[in-house]
Design goal:
This protein has 535 residues and is an alpha/beta fold. The chain has 19 helices and 22 strands. 50% of the residues are buried.
């Protein structure tokens, strides 16, 4: 009987694997999966954005170094575990943080440093475009970045030949194709559901809006071509293979699926691409994606309308801030432990501290926190100032402190989700959650279930995250049957035997979160004062 190790070794040799590489906000991760969608090996690279000249950015050197390091670590794990060198892969896909602004001239030169989704400097442009299109254009979207640059009369604009996202840039670099998956494209410019392409009427409106500037381009000329899941969007070039694999072992010609955004890979990784399903993705930022049955009744600035990787409409609530402040506080507790002569394992630290929240008062004991490391669009902040507040009457103890910081990590998200559930009566059958927070069992699920007042599941695959989801999209390109939808591929093949732990909302937790969120909303003036005072 052939062992599992032997089967995987053969899959690697025969090129029956799929590779997903995702550029997250704090980590670049490469995941190689077999034909049964199981992870064979992975590699990663830690990185952080920088605030330079008023913009959050990552530089090109870090982008390429991270790509090569993550792939190289994965490759070495394959060699150690299976005694095989990767020379071929069945299919590859690249994903990254959505939105942002990467503008290039005709020579491929990046005209200004990459402006990430985290920048909240496009308020004027977003407001004007929302009014023009009668469609919500968030500050993060690429078109808002472009129009704000136009309003600011930036000098690079006449030289633009190509505008894309980070995932689109990586795909272009390694394939030579200016392509983008429809999910990622829907965070650049509005998508027409009927044509599965950019909205033609809105593109015409934009061109008319800037006609007096006399730029030598029209919008459709500088945006990437839109592809849906399952389509081939290029293949790995000889140059691309050398960039990705510095050892030179990887061969060119590998099919590449459409590059996607982290929202799309999160939907795939949690099997939430069908209507009435949703997912919550937790990291530096947090977003909830709900696949809609019908259009919303009106435009909401707190709600993005994007798509699944196969083009179905999705309501997206995106908060810029989630885990950064919580991680900073846990770092402080680590320093305290080390100062006391106690070395603390990171996983143990998170487990102990997060579980303290389960011992807390339902509403967090009257404590209040805003983990705004950066601006927060949903609550109207251009700049971030982390803030922790208590009154003499607050119940200040460790359990309430941790519960409050978990609550506030989802505070802005809760404000947006209430619009969908309480004002639009959007039906949600289930929420699937993924991200590092859910590696600690139970706690994160209970908090999210309380915030959403909906059952929340975490699957065994949730820890793999978006890179695994991207590998699944690459596998779909290679392994789908004729006319097999992405929804059916996920249900019947990828997740057919995957078990998830579902937690229903506890009414006491729901009421506690509601009490906290009322305090959160009332206290926003305190946060505004903090931003003004420290600016």
């Amino acid at each position: 009987m052939k062992t599992e190790r032997f089967k995987r070794n053969q899959a690697i040799i025969n090129g029956e694997t799929s590779l997903g590489i995702e550029f997250g906000s704090t980590r670049i991760k490469a995941v190689l999966i077999d034909q049964h969608y199981q992870t064979i090996a992975s590699g990663s690279y830690e990185w952080e954005n920088r605030l330079e000249d008023g913009f959050w950015t990552y530089n090109l050197v870090d982008i390429i170094t991270g790509l090569q390091t993550a792939y190289g670590e994965m490759k070495r794990e394959v060699e150690r575990t299976y005694g095989t060198t990767i020379r071929n892969v069945g299919s590859i896909g690249f994903s990254a943080m959505m939105h942002g602004y990467m503008a290039f001239d005709h020579t491929g030169e990046l005209l200004v440093p990459f402006r990430t989704w985290r920048n909240s400097t496009t308020g004027e442009a977003a407001k004007k475009l929302t009014e023009t299109f009668q469609f919500n254009i968030p500050e993060r979207w690429s078109i808002a970045h472009l129009y704000q640059a136009i309003l600011n009369e930036e000098k690079h604009l006449p030289r633009i030949d190509y505008l894309t996202t980070l995932a689109g840039y990586i795909h272009w670099l390694l394939t030579g194709k200016k392509a983008l998956g429809i999910g990622d494209a829907s965070g650049m410019f509005p998508i027409d559901e009927t044509t599965q392409n950019y909205n033609e009427a809105m593109m015409k409106q934009f061109d008319e809006l800037i006609a007096d500037k006399g730029y030598p381009w029209q919008l459709k000329e500088i945006l990437p071509k839109v592809y849906s899941a399952g389509e081939q969007a290029g293949e790995l070039t000889e140059v691309g293979a050398k960039i990705l694999d510095r050892s030179g072992n990887l061969q060119p010609g590998i099919p590449i699926c459409p590059p996607e955004g982290d929202a799309g890979t999160g939907m795939v990784a949690t099997n939430s691409v069908r209507k009435r399903t949703g997912n919550v993705s937790v990291g530096t930022s947090v977003f909830a994606m709900i696949v809609l049955e019908k259009e919303l009744s009106k435009v909401y600035p707190e709600i993005d309308l994007v798509t699944t990787p196969s083009g179905s409409p999705v309501a997206m609530v995106h908060a810029n801030n989630c885990s950064s402040d919580l991680n900073a506080w846990l770092g402080l507790f680590r320093e305290f432990s080390e100062a006391m002569g106690q070395e603390v394992d990171t996983n143990k630290l998170f487990e102990v501290m997060l579980n303290k929240a389960l011992e807390a008062d339902p509403d967090g004991g009257g404590l209040l926190s805003y983990g705004y490391f950066s601006g927060e669009n949903i609550t109207g902040f251009e700049k971030g100032r982390p803030l922790f507040v208590r009154s003499p009457e607050s119940q200040f103890n460790l359990a309430n402190f941790m519960r409050t910081h978990l609550f506030t990590a989802f505070g802005a998200l809760k404000v947006g989700m209430d619009i969908l559930t309480k004002e639009e009566n959007v039906a949600i059958d289930s929420i699937l959650a993924h991200g590092g927070l859910f590696k600690t069992p139970l706690v994160g699920q209970k908090i999210v279930a309380a915030a959403m007042n909906t059952p929340v599941s975490v699957m065994a695959t949730a820890g793999e995250g978006g890179a695994w989801g991207m590998a699944i999209l690459a596998s779909y390109l290679m392994n789908k049957e004729e006319n097999e939808s992405l929804e059916d591929f996920l249900d019947k093949k990828v997740f057919a035997e995957v078990n998830g732990q579902e937690i229903y909302p506890d009414q006491v937790d729901v009421e506690g979160f509601e009490a906290f969120i009322e305090r959160y909303k009332k206290g926003l003036m305190i946060e505004h004062a903090a931003v003004e005072h420290f600016s």
